[in-house]
Amino acid sequence: MSRVVILTGAGISAESGLGTFRAENGLWAQHRVEDVATPEGFRADPALVHRFYNMRRAESAGADPNEAHRALARLEAELDGGVTIVTQNVDDLHERGGAQNIIHMHGALAGSLCAACDHRWPSAFETTPADLCPHCATPNTRPDIVWFGEMPYQMDRIFGLLQDAEIFAAIGTSGNVYPAAGFAHEARRSGAHTVELNLEPSMVVNDFVETRFGPATRTVPEWVAELLG
Ligand code: BJW
């Protein structure tokens, strides 16, 4: 077995101390999604959006990868090129946990993007609306994050991987946000074994043949150990 595609969401970083989005006390309970995660919100109040992502960058820097991140890195190393992690997360805990083959489909806190010319560059730790784009020199710096209404990154590559996958796993994601929520359906239609690892059933649980419920720091190392036999 050598083609494993793993979709991760906020739940895999929850036990590292990073908040999820849709929990009762989650990020969307504290901030209106329209204000901080849409291009319209950014145009209306760029300072608020910069503050929100500066806070997220600081929280991410203060968090450490957990056993679930490290188990996926082990799987990737031992299956030697057969594993791709497609993460919706904008933190860098997969990288710091030792994984290498990672697609950040919703962007990354580590990146800045020019809203005027689309130039991308490594983000400063703290950003402001006055920051100039190093390419076009206009003050249109925004976080390189995929907001609602925007096209997630590397979709052609991801759909190619889903079509070829032998195993598709979704870890710690609620299945509320498309296109990621449709990946299990796509992979299963193409013949993959689909497995959900989550604290509770997601919105798309019926697209999975196998389910494992519990905290990611327990279920993911167990699942990886079984796969590696
Ligand atoms: C644990 C755990 C533990 C907790 N162990 N588990 C109507 C129908 C269909 C689609 C649409 C529609 N209207 C609009 C759309 C499109 C829209 C969309 O999906 N809207 C929905 C709300 C309906 N999507 C878009 O706009 C996307 N773009 C797009 O569609 O482009 C067009 C296109 C067409 C065709 C093909 C391709 C593209 C863009 C979406 C961008 C999402 N951006 C965000 C914010 C930016 C990132 C950031 O600031 O960090 O990304 S939204 C937010 O949700 C974030 C996340 O990546 C994303 C997913 O959240 P996630 O990770 O699932 O977190 P939670 O909190 O929801 O769930 C946590 C889970 O963990 C739970 O299940 C817990 O149980 C679990 N858990 N602790 C294991 N210890």
In short:
With 229 residues, this protein is an alpha/beta fold. It contains ten helices and nine strands.
Helical residue percent band: 25-40%
* Molecules bound to protein: ligand BJW
* Cross-sheet strand order for the largest sheet: 3-2-1-7-8-9
Principal-axis shape equals globular
What series of H and E elements makes up the topology?
A: EHHHHHHEHEEEEHEHEEH
- And the CATH topology of the largest domain? Rossmann fold
Secondary-structure blueprint:
Blueprint: E1 4-8, H1 11-14, H2 27-30, H3 33-36, H4 39-44, H5 46-61, H6 67-78, E2 83-87, H7 93-96, E3 102-104, E4 107-114, E5 120-122, E6 141-145, H8 155-164, E7 167-171, H9 183-189, E8 193-198, E9 210-213, H10 216-228
Parallel strand pairs: 1-2, 1-7, 2-3, 7-8, 8-9
Antiparallel strand pairs: 4-5, 4-6
The structure holds ligand BJW.
Features:
35% helix; Rossmann fold; 9 strands; 229 residues; alpha/beta; SIR2/SIRT2 'Small Domain'; binds ligand BJW
Description:
The protein is α/β, with parallel strands linked by helices and 229 residues long. The chain folds into two domains: 2-17 and 65-106 and 151-228, TPP-binding domain (Rossmann fold, 3-Layer(aba) Sandwich), CATH 3.40.50.1220; 19-62 and 109-145, SIR2/SIRT2 'Small Domain' (2-Layer Sandwich), CATH 3.30.1600.10. Helix content is 35%, strand content 19%. The protein has helices at residues 11-14, 27-30, 33-36, 39-44, 46-61, 67-78, 93-96, 155-164, 183-189, 216-228, and strands at 4-8, 83-87, 102-104, 107-114, 120-122, 141-145, 167-171, 193-198, 210-213. Strand 2 (83-87), helix 7 (93-96) and strand 3 form a beta-alpha-beta unit. The longest helix has 16 residues, at 46-61. The radius of gyration is 18 Å and the shape is globular. The termini are close together. The mean pLDDT is 97. Bound molecules: ligand BJW. Ligand BJW binds at residues 9-11, 14-15, 20-22, 26, 37, 88, 90, 106, 145-152, 155, 172-174, 176-179, 198-200, 202, 215-216.
